[in-house]
Write a structure and sequence with these properties.
The complex is a heterotrimer of chains A (about 300), B (about 550) and C (about 230).
Chain A (H helix, E strand, L loop, with lengths): L14 H32 L16 H30 L6 E8 L2 E6 L4 E3 L1 E5 L3 E8 L4 E5 L4 E5 L5 E6 L4 E7 L12 E6 L1 H9 L8 H11 L24 E3 L5 E3 L2 H9 L22 H13 L6
Parallel strand pairs in A: 1-5, 4-10
Antiparallel strand pairs in A: 1-2, 2-3, 5-8, 6-7, 6-9, 9-10, 11-12
Chain B lengths: L20 H5 L4 H29 L10 H20 L2 H15 L7 H23 L13 H5 L4 H28 L12 H33 L12 H35 L6 H14 L15 H29 L8 H24 L1 H7 L3 H31 L5 H28 L13 H31 L41 H5 L17
Helix pairs in contact in B: 2-3, 2-4, 2-5, 2-16, 3-5, 4-7, 4-8, 4-14, 5-7, 7-8, 8-9, 8-10, 9-11, 9-12, 9-14, 10-11, 11-12, 12-14, 12-15, 14-15, 15-16
Chain C lengths: L21 H36 L1 H9 L3 H26 L4 H31 L20 H37 L9 H25 L6
The chains are: A alpha+beta (about 300), B mainly alpha (about 550), C mainly alpha (about 230).
């Protein structure tokens, strides 16, 4: 697959940046190793003991030298820190409007849902050239979603959502590994990212075994079936707050705190609604902990995210 | 003075002074306690080594065909638990620290000899619990015991093993307290802090970490035991618990723990390099303070194990930033050691070869740590074989080499015998070559994406894995050879003089092996540390501080 | 050397063989006990940190849980422990002023009685919790209409902290009582005098430390949100 046996394929927009940083660190390592090994080898030969009673002159250290080799490495270190922090920021911040895909990890498989409703297990079809954001959670223990070719990785945690993003630049198949030890079949919790041309990806989504309903549609269906509509009306007249346009907005809680309505807050409000109640409302929402699967939760979250002012 | 010689003419020393198993098992002599630790430690090293052998055997083939998945998971877990808690953490302090600290500071024993013996038994007891967990079927959580797998899911003997680690933690804490007080209060007259060998500074810094860090992991692991036994829920997300909190608490100790492991190694290297260069350490106070800096800064960086754990971006930035600071004191040491060689009189006897090996391998290990503290690369490298390679470079290439270095250097003092120099040189070469062949390929495997704790992997990585296993075989032979000639030397080794390497230090002014009460008379120290020059040697006075010790006061 | 070493003679400034002087021995013992106490602070500190994280996340649950703790017993125990620190200090003082073994043992016994009272009260409290199904294992039940926002999970976490923190503290108290008994034995063997009462003094340090841990535990566990 790759011509360079030392690197995986550079198959995402960030890959070359990570590799460049890696290459710089390798260079730094080699330079310092040559410096130190060189010094030590040369001294060991040049100053080898020539007679048993040899008494070398003692020295007492050198402040200038000490300060130099403290301060210079410190500056180099901080420079490396800045380079690393820069790449890290880019890894953490998805661009606006990425394609959203959802992953649920469980012992020992990956369950992927696309917004169109299409599901897959242990494979992840993505279009080339488009930013993709994976929102992930676990059904049981810690896992980690790792795509070496894209240089991305993030832990997958039970009880909350984590994300990673990438933009694939090469067609082909690339390894997915679980990279947080999760029990017996940890080494078997692997898969493949399949990068396709955007039109092929669209065809795949709509093709055989396509889902009848998108995630948003599935979410809406469950929203109605579970009776959420009874209290969460599209106006503020219901017993629960209106959910229209709430995603990514700040909201004031009963206890005075202010939180932003992110996917974690939406999930928590379904499973443990009384934990963070919106100001002005009563703690009467039923508790859905243990009653909705992670995949269904993602569908409902997807639906709520989609409720914008204009949609009503 | 006729009490100083046995009936057969042999001089009395701490080894032959009293006989019988009780005189060893109930000893209060720090030297005998050090020897007992050495024996138990070696046994645990072999146990951990056997697990390593199984790991490398399985990884020769891409499929998981040697062991069941669960068995393999137990292999790497137990390799880690045994090696870290029952070998690396005690190693140098328990053996060399115990033996040498009182000797180097001119004391008759540590401050609390009974506590010292208790430390040994706590270590042994903790070890018994760990062995029990292994014999009953083992644990499969990884040595890091991440929740909720360890607290709610694993079916293995986690609680039993954790109790063993907990008990062992007390050994570490009590040793730390003992050494701290000993170094503070029991130095010979005239032996000011800045006249101490750097071996002492290193152990002092280590003791600080042992005392401050170990209790945190103790309570953390205890909470996991309570979670398993009582299901208290604090790490269980279904009750609102936070599995990532475990990671914070665990690494708060476990990062400083790696400095517990390496600082004593640094301590040994300083003393040995000074001897075999016949020079005082260049930049003595910088080396001394760098140990303290590492001890302090080491407590501030634990989150660099958690960059992709779900902790906030900003927390990760802070931890990465501080981690770069903690790298600098280690670099300072390397430079100071290198300059100690400058214009020295260098003899490449086997202890010195170990020093050379240490400098080489620890430099690589330390620098590869930079790849992991750099946020941008750590995302890719976290939980891959790169990390495995990095920590083996610092732990084995660094710490174990330093331990072997120290064992060789002080073996004549401890046992009264010389080890055979030829096999020793061969041993260090086997260890050095085998080690590099084992772990260099793992850096590459890591960057390619091979995750840790995998017993099956994509076929294209087999060649590198086979190389690694071949290296492990050579490494194992090197260790085996070393253990073999050390044992041989106890029976057939040349009798050692008091100072076979013409080293400086209070321990070299007394016989090999030392008498039970260390010094006939406590010296008064008026000279600087490492008085290797001609003027320095002349300033070493033979004044002593005390009357010779009375026979009936000693063990 | 026999393990029962040479500590006889109230008039002797004899010291253990590894020390050069009685003063060195005294300073070492004190420094050692302080170092040990520092690590105990870190031990409890880990619990306090975890407690802080969860209290911050689940303040209502922690308040609710705290309200189900019996403030009467908690306050009583606080008074008992402070009194026991007083009796402990008196024991040290009576050793220091050579008041005779009877006095010293008397104060030590008073300390033990107060310590055991503390443990007895804890037993009463723990039994009460068991009756109310508030032990944080699989028998835990939670239903308090006064706190409608609080669900079982976070309430259970509060009680987990309550039991682990007070349990660890109680364990240290039990060890403390054991140490007191050992000190009584030492006094009876005439090993304590005005010139050498280090064991009593450092046992006092330990006892006071255990007391101080409770001074922190009490408000953190019993007094959450009690000001209204």
């Amino acid at each position: 697959m790759s011509d360079f046996p030392l690197f995986p394929a550079q198959a995402s927009t960030i890959a070359w940046q990570v590799d460049a940083l890696y290459g710089f660190l390798v260079l730094l390592t080699v330079v310092f190793c040559i410096l130190v090994f060189g010094m030590v080898t040369i001294f060991a030969i040049k100053y080898r003991r020539r007679s048993d009673d040899e008494q070398p002159e003692q020295n007492h250290g050198n402040l200038a030298l000490e300060l130099s080799w403290t301060i210079i490495p410190l500056f180099i270190a901080l420079f490396v820190f800045l380079l690393g922090a820069d790449v890290f920021f880019r890894l953490q911040r998805a661009p606006a409007d990425p394609l959203e895909i959802y992953a649920v990890g469980k012992q020992w498989m990956w369950k992927i849902q696309h917004e169109s409703g299409k599901r897959e297990i242990n494979t992840l079809h993505v279009p080339k050239g488009q930013p993709v954001r994976l929102t992930m959670t676990s059904e049981d223990v810690l896992h980690d979603f790792f795509i070496p070719a894209f240089r991305v990785k993030n832990d997958v945690i039970p009880g909350r959502y984590t994300t990673l993003w990438f933009e694939a630049t090469q067609l082909g198949e690339f390894h997915i590994f679980c990279a947080e030890y999760c029990g017996t079949q940890h080494s078997g919790m692997i898969g493949k990212v399949i990068v396709m041309d955007p039109t092929d990806y669209h065809d795949w989504l709509m093709g055989a075994s396509a889902s009848d309903e998108s995630m948003v549609e599935a979410g809406q269906r469950q929203f109605q079936a579970l009776g959420c509509e009874t209290c969460h009306k599209s106006t503020s007249s219901g017993q629960g707050p209106s959910l229209v346009g709430i995603y990514d907005k700040p909201v004031k809680l009963k206890n005075g705190q202010e939180v932003t309505v992110d996917v974690d807050y939406i999930r928590e409000s379904i499973l443990q609604p009384r934990a963070k109640i919106v100001d002005g409302y009563e703690p009467i929402m039923p508790i859905f902990e243990g009653q909705i699967s992670e995949q269904s939760l993602l569908q409902i979250v997807s639906y709520i995210k989609s409720l914008t002012e204009s949609a009503e | 003075m006729s009490d100083a010689v046995k009936a057969n003419g042999e001089p009395k020393n701490y080894l032959n002074d009293t006989y019988g198993i009780k005189s060893w098992l109930l000893t209060l002599d720090h030297k005998r306690i050090g020897i007992m630790y050495l024996i138990t430690l070696t046994a645990f090293f072999l146990v951990g080594g056997v697990f390593a052998a199984f790991i490398r055997l399985e990884l020769m083939t891409p499929k998981g065909d040697l062991f069941e998945a669960e068995t393999y998971n137990k292999m790497f877990t137990m390799h880690g638990v045994v090696m870290i808690f029952f070998f690396l953490i005690p190693s140098i302090p328990a053996v060399l620290g115990n033996f040498l600290i009182p000797l180097q500071i001119g004391a008759r024993d540590v401050a609390f000899p009974k506590l010292n013996l208790a430390s040994y038994y706590l270590y042994a007891l903790g070890g018994m619990f760990a062995i029990a967990a292994i014999l009953m079927g083992g644990i499969d959580t990884g040595w890091t015991f991440y929740t909720p797998y360890s607290s709610s899911y694993s079916n293995s003997f986690v609680s039993l093993a954790l109790v063993g680690v907990f008990i062992n933690g007390f050994s570490s804490i009590l040793t730390g307290v003992n050494f701290m007080v000993t170094i503070h209060k029991m130095r010979a007259p005239g032996l000011t802090w800045f006249r101490l060998p750097l071996f002492i500074w290193g152990h002092y810094a280590t003791s600080l970490i042992q005392v401050l860090g170990t209790p945190v992991v103790a309570i953390t692991l205890l909470l996991v035991v309570f979670e398993r036994v009582f299901n208290i829920g604090i790490f269980d997300p279904t009750y609102g618990g936070d599995p990532v909190l475990f990671q914070h608490m665990f690494w708060f100790y476990s990062h400083p723990a790696v400095y517990i492991m390496i600082l004593p190694g640094f301590a040994v290297i300083s003393d040995v390099i000074a001897c075999f260069s016949r020079k005082r350490i260049f930049g003595y106070s910088f080396v001394a303070f760098s140990s303290l800096a590492i001890a302090v800064l080491g407590f501030l960086v634990w989150g660099h194990h958690m960059f992709v754990s779900g902790q906030s971006t900003y927390a990760s930035m802070v931890f990465s930033f501080i981690t770069f600071f903690v790298a600098v004191p280690s670099a300072v040491k390397i430079f100071n050691w290198s300059f100690t060689l400058h214009k020295g009189s260098i003899k490449l006897d086997s202890p010195m070869l170990y020093v050379m090996g240490f400098i080489g391998l620890f430099t690589i290990g330390g620098l590869t740590g930079l790849f992991l503290s750099t946020l941008g690369t750590d995302v890719h490298l976290h939980d891959t074989y790169f990390v495995v390679a990095h920590f083996h470079y610092v732990m084995v290439g660094g710490m174990v080499m330093a331990f072997l270095c120290g064992l060789h250097f002080w073996w004549p003092k401890m046992t009264g015998r010389m080890y055979p120099e030829g096999p020793a040189k061969l041993g260090v070469m086997f260890v050095f070559a085998g080690f590099n062949l084992t772990f260099l390929p793992q850096f590459i495997l890591g960057y390619m994406g091979m995750p840790r704790r995998y017993h099956a992997y994509p076929e294209e990585w087999q060649a590198l894995n086979i190389m690694s296993t071949a290296g492990a075989t050579v490494l194992g032979l090197g260790f085996g050879l070393t253990i073999a000639y050390f044992i041989w030397s106890l029976f057939k080794g040349e009798k050692a003089p008091a100072n076979p390497f013409q080293a400086k230090g209070l321990e070299w002014d007394i016989p090999s092996p030392p008498i039970a009460h260390n010094f006939e008379a406590i010296p008064i120290v008026t000279w600087e540390a490492y008085p290797y020059g001609p003027e320095e040697a002349a300033s070493q006075s033979t004044e002593t501080a005390t009357e010779p010790a009375k026979e009936d006061e000693i063990v | 050397m026999k393990l029962s070493d040479h500590a006889q003679g109230a008039h002797s400034l004899h010291h253990l063989h590894q020390f050069e002087s009685a003063e060195q021995q005294y300073e070492s013992a004190t420094l050692g006990m302080w170092a040990f106490i520092v690590q105990e602070i870190l031990f409890f500190g880990g619990l306090f940190c975890a407690y802080t994280v969860y209290r911050n996340t689940y303040i209502e649950a922690f308040t609710a849980g705290s309200h189900h703790l019996d403030i009467f017993w908690g306050t009583l125990n606080t008074v008992v422990l402070i009194a026991s620190s007083l009796t402990m200090a008196m024991a040290v003082r009576s050793a220091q002023t050579n008041s005779g073994p009877g006095r010293i043992i008397g104060w030590l016994i008073a300390t033990i009685i107060l310590g055991c009272t503390f443990l007895g009260v804890k037993a009463i409290e723990y039994t009460g919790k068991w009756h109310h199904h508030l032990i944080p294992n699989s028998t835990f039940q939670w239903n308090d209409p006064a706190f409608p926002t609080v669900t079982l999970g976070p309430a259970k976490i509060f009680y987990s902290f309550y039991f682990v923190m007070t349990g660890m503290h109680a364990l240290h108290m039990i060890i403390g009582v054991g140490i007191m008994l050992w000190m009584i034995a030492k006094v009876r063997r005439n090993e304590i005098s005005a010139q050498y009462f280090t064991p009593i003094e450092i046992s006092g340090l330990y006892w006071h430390f255990v007391d101080i841990v409770w001074i922190f535990l009490f408000p953190l566990l019993y007094l959450i949100g009690r000001h209204h």
